[in-house]
Amino acid sequence: MKIKQTVIALLAAAVCAQAGFEMPRHVYREKQLDEAIAEAKEKGKALAFVLTDETSS
Predict the structure, then answer these.
(1) How far is 13 from 11, CA to CA, in rounded Å?
(2) Which of 11, 30, 39, 47 is in the most buried spot, having the most CB atoms within 10 Å?
(3) DSSP string of 1-48?
C-alpha cells in the first residue's frame, strides 16, 4: 500500500513541477541570438539563453 501511495505522490509531483512551463518547438542557435531577441520583444515574451555542449551526452 505504501508503494502505491509513493508512486501516486511522485506522479503528482512530476505534474506539478511541469505546470506553467512549456518547451518551445523551435530553438535558436547562438548565431541567431539577435533574431531571437527581436522575436521575443515583438511577442512580449521572455528570453532564456541556455549554453550547452551539443557534442556531449
Answers:
(1) 5
(2) 39
(3) -HHHHHHHHHHHHHHHHHTT----S----GGGHHHHHHHHHHHT----
